[in-house]
């Protein structure tokens, strides 16, 4: 019989698919560097064996008929996940026995991990404890005996194919199959039947997670095996081409900085400080012990940390490869908190690479650099990939981070390191051995600092990653002895007169927005930035200030920025603001906290409603950034609603209390920038001491407790799925039909429902997605939007241009 694994986009023989997935899985593991506690050969073997076993259940005639559309997709007899997982367990148990690893941790538990990852290779990860519960498995088990009877009819051919797949391993196919058949061929009539059948799996789970002291390596190995399997599986099934690694010149940043146009725009004293900082970091990075894994670059805002961190990463990349004799140079993963600043940083890195005289960069830039977030374009640029025809292939390569430098968000990075979703976890293996740059890391909620610390230390200790925290506010995620500062004597830059650019003026008097606007009388500066805590307060002030400017007949552009502006318009406004500032035009910018992190603008005077101290200092980085004045003023306000309520409710009350307590110590109500480091150290010490820290997720990592459909706030445990950097509950996506292009996009979106073929409909949606989401905003669900129409029934709401 001709057994196939897939029929689309082309027919693939099942044996060829199993062989390919196994080989690729092994190849990925072999290319990695682990610490001495993890034997790479064992993990590579196990990865290969999982690869050749993961679709064993497709050897049923039921599945083959489904491929030919002769059997319904939802028929349980066509399901292959559980039967393949059970077969994988038997194969790995035999391997562990032949290698005499039965009593060696973590290897003796690898059959359990193999069972777990294969069972879920077409879905998201669940709690491993549920996969050994008879009550959870009863319905799934009902069809196993019938499937095995069906397989038995073609067993000679199947054994022949598996003998070829096992040819490099001393694993007896005949014995495994007979044992497998004996165990599961009987009809499953009760929970006790299942209990007997999976007794060995159950024992492994018990001894791994309940009897023994658990180990973070179990989590890391389970994720690695899962990631390698699902990525290899999807790429082979989708016909994704092999991507080859590239080298990056060590002097990329130096070449970029020597460009005449760069030098012409950077002649100030501030630029001399940036050069000094970069050279000191380079010197330190060149000489640190190669076994150091976690680093910080701490320097004031506007001192060139982005390019400095790239220089440090390139040096580490070269040193690690040469000194540890790696097969491939480590990938560089540059991660930021918000999508709004990804483009800006991507463009800088892209310019650096373009200046590097790399011969094939222009036609193959996807091999060198990519950006990945939910709004990024789905096009992996190489000379062989077509933008329109190969969109599924582009998506597979982008989502698995097949590039040398990846610019991405905290969401993409941490939902992989601390995640449970299939789509996110397929790139986990490409984070192994990488250099991770975390910019603006203070934006990670304090309650998650313990779990972030735990996973980053584990990735560096076991999987040879390097982590660089880039910050002006040095949050206390790590203990001082756990990381190496790459800028020695960094304190002197915070205390430097040259970098004493801003003075905070603290006004604790309560004011309503209109009253505050009425009190504004000094319009002698060219540029003003007003930052508010909520969209509503920013809109209220925007309305008042526009009227005031018109009444006073002042010549100012007034520009509004917030997340309630569609991404397309937001990007345009940021560019407009930058141009106006560069040209010296008079401009007033009204914004929410969107402006805080990484939006590279320089205003003469800044006002900000009271917020957490780290947020205040980030906004201060947009004031007199390039030292065009001796010192500029930033005002901290205490704005209230009409009903006397505060606009700070979006923040944890504790953070506001700690901020006020620290600022109230300054009886003069003035704080110079040279005191910011002292302030922020006090702030983080207090927040770490007083905040609720979510430590239960750490226990869930150790127990492979990924997801629990019955979880509630009253539960005693917290599954990994509850790790949430941005709270998404109660938010509603709205498509805003702003212009002619939006109307066309909306029509194309509505036409998707006419495409009956599911895969073709998905491909057409992927072509549309990036442009479509340029017109989408997410807002908190409220009564005001309940009457908006749906684009398609029960899907996204939309607001037409008539509204």
Descriptive report:
With 803 residues, this protein is of the alpha/beta class. It folds into 5 domains: 4-237, Hypothetical protein af1432 (Orthogonal Bundle); 252-488, P-loop containing nucleotide triphosphate hydrolases (Rossmann fold), CATH 3.40.50; 500-690, Rossmann fold (3-Layer(aba) Sandwich); 695-720, no CATH class; 731-799, no CATH class. Helices cover 46% and strands 12% of the residues. It is built from 33 helices and 19 strands. The protein has a 7-stranded parallel sheet with strand order 5-6-4-7-8-3-9, with helices on both faces. Strands 12-13-11-14-15-10-16 form a 7-stranded mixed sheet, with helices on both faces. The longest helix is centred in the first third of the chain and has 22 residues, at 216-237. It is globular. The chain starts with a strand and ends with a strand.
């Amino acid at each position: 019989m001709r057994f196939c694994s897939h029929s689309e986009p082309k027919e693939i023989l099942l044996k060829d698919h199993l062989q390919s997935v196994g080989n690729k899985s092994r190849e990925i593991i072999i290319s990695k560097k682990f610490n001495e506690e993890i034997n790479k050969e064992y993990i590579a073997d196990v990865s290969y064996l999982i690869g050749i076993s993961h679709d064993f259940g497709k050897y049923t005639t039921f599945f083959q008929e489904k491929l030919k559309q002769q059997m319904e997709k939802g028929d349980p007899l066509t399901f292959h996940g559980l039967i393949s997982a059970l077969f994988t367990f038997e194969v790995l148990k035999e391997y562990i026995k032949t290698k005499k690893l039965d009593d060696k941790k973590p290897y003796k538990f690898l059959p359990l991990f193999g069972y777990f990852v294969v069972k879920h290779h077409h879905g998201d990860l669940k709690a491993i404890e549920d996969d050994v519960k008879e009550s959870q498995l009863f319905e799934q088990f009902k069809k196993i005996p019938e499937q095995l009877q069906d397989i038995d009819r073609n067993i000679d051919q199947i054994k022949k194919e598996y003998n070829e797949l096992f040819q490099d391993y001393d694993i007896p196919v005949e014995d495994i199959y007979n044992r497998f058949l004996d165990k599961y061929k009987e009809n499953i009539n009760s929970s006790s039947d299942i209990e007997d059948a999976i007794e060995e799996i159950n024992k492994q789970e018990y001894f791994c997670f309940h009897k023994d002291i658990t180990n973070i390596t179990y989590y890391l190995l389970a994720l690695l095996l899962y990631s390698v399997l699902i990525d290899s599986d999807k790429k082979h099934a989708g016909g994704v081409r092999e991507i080859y690694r590239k080298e990056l010149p060590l002097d990329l940043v130096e070449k970029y900085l020597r460009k005449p146009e760069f030098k012409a725009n950077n002649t100030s004293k501030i630029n001399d400080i940036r050069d000094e900082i970069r050279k000191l970091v380079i010197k330190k990075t060149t000489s640190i012990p190669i076994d150091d894994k976690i680093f910080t670059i701490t320097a004031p805002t506007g001192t060139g940390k982005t390019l400095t961190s790239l220089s440090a990463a390139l040096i580490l990349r070269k040193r690690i490869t040469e000194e540890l004799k790696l097969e491939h140079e480590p990938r560089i993963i540059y991660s930021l908190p918000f999508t709004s600043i990804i483009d800006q940083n991507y463009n800088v890195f892209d310019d650096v690479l373009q200046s590097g005289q790399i011969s094939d960069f222009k036609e193959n830039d996807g091999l060198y650099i990519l950006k990945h977030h939910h709004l990024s374009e789905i096009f992996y640029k190489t000379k062989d990939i077509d933008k329109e025809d190969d969109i599924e292939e582009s998506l597979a390569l982008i989502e698995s981070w097949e590039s040398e430098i990846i610019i991405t968000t905290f969401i993409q990075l941490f939902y992989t390191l601390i995640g449970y979703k299939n789509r996110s976890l397929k790139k986990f293996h490409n984070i192994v051995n990488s250099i991770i740059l975390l910019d603006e890391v203070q934006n990670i909620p304090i309650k998650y600092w313990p779990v972030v610390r735990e996973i980053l230390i584990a990735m560096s200790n076991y999987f040879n990653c390097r982590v660089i925290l880039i910050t002006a506010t040095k949050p206390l995620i790590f203990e001082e002895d756990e990381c190496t500062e790459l800028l020695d004597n960094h304190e002197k830059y915070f205390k430097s007169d040259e970098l004493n650019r801003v003075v905070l003026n603290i006004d604790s008097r309560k004011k309503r927005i209109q009253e505050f606007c009425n009190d504004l009388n000094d319009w002698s500066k060219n540029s003003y930035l007003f930052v508010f805590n909520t969209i509503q307060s920013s809109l209220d002030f925007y309305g008042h200030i526009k009227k005031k400017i018109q009444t006073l007949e002042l010549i100012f552009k007034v520009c509004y920025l917030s997340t309630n502006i569609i991404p397309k318009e937001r990007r345009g406004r940021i560019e407009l603001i930058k141009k106006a500032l560069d040209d010296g035009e008079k401009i007033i910018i009204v914004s929410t906290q969107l402006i805080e992190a990484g939006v590279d603008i320089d205003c003469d005077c800044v006002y900000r409603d009271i917020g957490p101290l780290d947020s205040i200092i980030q906004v201060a980085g947009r004031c007199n950034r390039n030292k065009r004045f001796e010192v500029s003023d930033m005002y901290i306000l205490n704005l209230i609603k009409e009903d006397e309520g505060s606009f700070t409710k979006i923040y944890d009350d504790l953070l506001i209390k700690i901020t006020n307590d620290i600022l109230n110590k300054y009886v003069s109500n003035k704080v110079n920038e040279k005191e910011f480091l002292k302030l922020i150290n006090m702030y983080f010490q207090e927040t770490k001491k007083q905040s609720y820290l979510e430590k239960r997720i750490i226990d869930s990592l150790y127990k492979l407790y990924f997801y629990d459909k019955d979880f509630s706030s009253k539960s005693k445990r917290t599954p990994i799925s509850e790790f949430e950097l941005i709270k998404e509950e109660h938010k509603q996506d709205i498509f805003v039909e702003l212009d002619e292009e939006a109307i066309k996009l909306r029509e194309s979106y509505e036409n998707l429902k006419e495409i009956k073929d599911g895969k073709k409909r998905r491909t057409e949606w992927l072509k549309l997605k990036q442009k479509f989401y340029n017109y989408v905003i997410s807002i908190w669900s409220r009564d005001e939007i309940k009457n908006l129409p749906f684009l398609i029934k029960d899907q996204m709401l939309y607001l037409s241009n008539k509204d």
